[in-house]
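The data are quoted verbatim for completeness:
=====
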Amino acid sequence: MSKKIAFLGCGSMGEAILTGLLAAGTPPQAVTVTVRRPERAEELAQAHGVTALASNEEGRANIDAVAGAGVVLLGVKPVGIAALCREIADALEPGAVVISVAAAVSLDQLEGALRPGQPVVRSMPNTPLKVGRGVVALSAGSAVDEHHLAAAHEIFDGSGVVFDIPEEQQDAVSAISGSGPAYAFYLAEAMAAAAQELGLPAGIAQVLARETVAGAGLMLAEPGADTAALRRGVTSPNGTTERAIDIFDRQGLPGIVRAGAKAAAARAAEITEELRGT
């Protein structure tokens, strides 16, 4: 399989993936990136040493980028994925692996917009890829073999933990790890607001909440970390933490989190249906 890699669209998530890929040893000269604006293309070329093309200036930018590529990463918004697939379909190498990072775009939608037999992988990365602590779930299409899947893993290995799941689990992954960073940020917001109500200045409240959530996350990242064991380690019998956890339980916080995750998964399924036919 060709070592050439094409990134079609390279926003903040795409650039995080690109950064991890290059840090893992992929040479910049093996990567071609396409974006709309020439200013963004120049920025990516200067920052990473890759070839960057602006589709607003070069109408064949996407087609030229995928020519001879062994892996093609689709990084545009979900509403534009099907049109992009149709644009590049005839220019793709027959064995090139097409990887979509677009939420809610199904494998059958991707495969339907490409030539029959084109290997396609659907991915669900999350924003902590930007700091090398992401998680990525991959679902293989009907034409994907172990070599194609290994190539997809290599794209993300430098940015976080990568695992394989059946496609029917993608909505659940989206609800937990895809949306999950926002849940952690929301918790930090709520903690900062509570700190201010307890009389702390806003600046101190924000630092306390932010650094506490970030530090707890680092503890969870330790090998063998167990969430329940870590929680118990902070929760002394009849102490202050136990009193807070008791209130969280009695007011139904676990149920609220479950309900929110179910709503997120349901919305992901709705978006998939909305995108059919685009």
In short: Residues 253-275 form the longest helix (23 residues). Residues 178-268 form a domain with the ProC C-terminal domain-like fold fold (CATH 1.10.3730.10). The first strand starts at residue 5 and ends at 8. The beta strands are 5-8, 31-35, 51-54, 71-74, 97-100, 120-125, 134-140, 160-164.
